[in-house]
Structures are given as C-alpha cells and as structure tokens.
Design a protein that fits this description.
The chain is an alpha/beta fold. Helix content is 33%, strand content 17%. The longest helix has 21 residues, at 123-143. It is elongated.
Length: 341
C-alpha cells in the first residue's frame, strides 16, 4: 500500500487520488493476501467506502471501435469519444484485409496448451503472433512509417515464448504501455474462450455480433504459419483429416489410413514431416510425378527424403450421389519395409 505512505506526513489536510478502480488490479501471489483482498488499491477502497469520485468521461486515445466494448462492459456507457478519435485520420489500416481493422478477434483454433508451472502457452498462437508482427514490420519498412506494437498476454509462459520467438529481430521494450490507439487485435481460441464463463466469453460474443470475428486460417500468411507450427510441433491431428486447411481449394479430397497416422507420429524429423506435407499438398492439387511408361500399379509410391516412401492410391467416394476422386494415403514407410506394398 505505497499510496498510504505520503498520507502519514504531518500537516496534510487534502489528498487527491487519481486512478481507475476498474483497471487491472495489482497481482497478489499469496493466497492469504488474496483472500484478504490486498490486491485492492487505495482508490478502490475509498470508492467502496462511498467517497465521492469524479469521472473523466471523455476519452481522447482509442479509436471508437476499441473503446466501445469496455465502455459498455465496465463504464455503463458513461464514456464518450472525443472529436479527435472520430476523425477519418484516426482510421489506420496497417495491414490489408478486414481482419486488420481497428478492432477484431482473430480465432486461432489450433494448437495444444502446454502448462509451465502455474502458467501456460500455446505455440501455434505464438507463431501466429510472430507472423502478424513480421507482416507489420515488412509493411513498416515498405511504407517507411514507424509502427509501435504492444503484445500483451495474461500468461507469463506465453509472454516468454513470444519473446523467444521474436528474438532480437525488432527493437523491443519489455515495459510496454497497455494503452491502445488505432488498432486492437485479440488472438485466441474462440471456442475455448466462449465457454470460459469469464469476460473473455463476452469479448468473443461481442466480436461476433459486431461482425469483427475472423478465423486466422482464412488469411493465407497466417494459415501457413499455423501449418508450419503444427508440423514443427508434431501436432498433426488437425492436419491429417479430410477437411484440413492443408487441402482447401485442392482438386482432390484426401483421406488417411490409420497406418499412415501411426507412422507419421513416429517420425521425429521436422524436415521429413515438412516434406510429406508439401508433397501431399502438391498431389491434392493435381500434380503427378512422371511414371515410367507402362507402370499401371494402382498403389503409388513417392520418395520422401532419402529413407522413406509415401504410399498412396486413388479412390472414389460417393457423396450426395456424386462420385468424388479421393487421394487415399496408406502409409509412409522406411525403404527397408516398402516391399510389403
């Protein structure tokens, strides 16, 4: 309670407290202190005791699309937007696409949450964040316009993972202000957050109602970042399914046998996993390696790296009375075992 220290000085007759009891409170790690509500500020305590407060009810910083939700959720619509933030010059488009407007929720429906002590991280989300930052940096260099980006996460492990991913590529400052001016892009798993029973649920619903809820995999660059991250992490379950984002817009549907899924799970080489994914994407788009004349084998084999063969065939699927050509992936095997096929 540092704010009580100057109040102990002799001769003080008046004190003016400036703050906001609805902002993030102090972090209290001790459970006993938390139960004693030591996280409450002096300002909040005075308000709860009925002391009068004067609300500064005009905000001059945020684009109106950003201020709308907190104004409704926390301030009972008492805050108004100043004329300067309503000007057209305050509408900034740092990246192309509706996803990157003044306010958006970007749904990253991939990746597993890893717990690190009392914190957690999602490395696919980290990769998406890194890709957005890289795009902003590239655009900043191209336009020669300085851009300041703040990255905020409620999880320390996620913060450290983002810092490690970004490395020393950019001019970074760990003491970032939480104030937002032109754009606020919230990234997370919409399905998880909407079932959280917290304010995050309201944020997701608000974004959907406002038409500013977007799926990260709808953006070509972010989709690639998601795929690369899943392959590197070995989290392949979301990729090797018929409706995978790998094969959107492909000429053929792709199906996977259990043997293939088990074999891929055993492959530890990231390079091999990437090569398999690249090959499947090419095959599903209609690419074929030229075969020797007279080779009519129904079961096809393509070499992956130096030591593996991808085994696949063409199948026919009946869907809504229509015949659909399907690329059926049987297995990926070491060369020594390929004679079984």
């Amino acid at each position: 309670m540092e704010s009580t220290i100057p109040l102990q000085l002799p001769g003080i007759r008046h004190a003016i407290l400036i703050g906001d009891e609805r902002q993030l409170p102090a972090m209290v790690k001790c459970k006993i202190s938390e139960n004693a509500e030591f996280g409450r500020s002096l300002f909040e305590r005075m308000v709860l005791l009925g002391q009068k407060k004067h609300l500064l009810n005009v905000q001059y910083r945020m684009h109106p699309s950003i201020s709308l939700f907190p104004n409704m959720e926390f301030y009972s619509k008492q805050i108004s937007d100043a004329p300067n933030v309503k000007e057209r010059t305050y509408q900034r488009q740092f990246l192309q696409g509706n996803m990157y407007g003044p306010y958006s929720f970007i749904n990253v429906a991939y990746g597993e949450d890893f717990h690190a002590g009392s914190s957690q991280k999602n490395m696919v989300e980290v990769s998406v964040v890194a890709d957005v930052v890289a795009s902003l940096f590239k655009e900043s260099v191209s336009t020669r316009e300085r851009v300041t980006v703040g990255l905020i996460s409620p999880y320390k492990a996620q913060v450290f993972a983002i810092q490690e991913k970004l490395g020393n590529t950019y001019n970074t400052n760990s003491n970032i202000s939480t104030s937002v001016r032109y754009c606020l892009w919230v990234l997370g798993n919409g399905s998880t957050l909407i079932n959280s029973g917290s304010v995050w649920e309201k944020i997701v619903i608000y974004a959907k109602d406002r038409g500013c809820y977007y799926n990260a995999d709808e953006d070509k660059s972010l989709a690639k970042a998601i795929i690369d991250a899943l392959v590197e992490l070995g989290q392949l379950n979301d990729l090797f399914i018929m409706d995978s984002l790998l094969f959107r817009g492909a000429r053929w549907k792709v199906s996977f046998c259990d043997d293939y899924l088990k074999s891929m799970a055993r492959i530890k080489s990231i390079a091999i996993r990437k090569e398999v994914v690249d090959l499947l994407m090419k095959l599903s788009s209609g690419w074929h390696h030229p075969h020797k004349k007279g080779n009519l084998n129904l079961m096809k084999q393509y070499t992956v790296g130096k030591w593996y063969k991808l085994v696949w065939s063409v199948d026919i699927l009946i869907e809504n009375s229509n015949f659909i050509q399907v690329l059926k992936t049987w297995d990926i095997l070491p060369l020594a075992e390929i004679q079984n096929y």
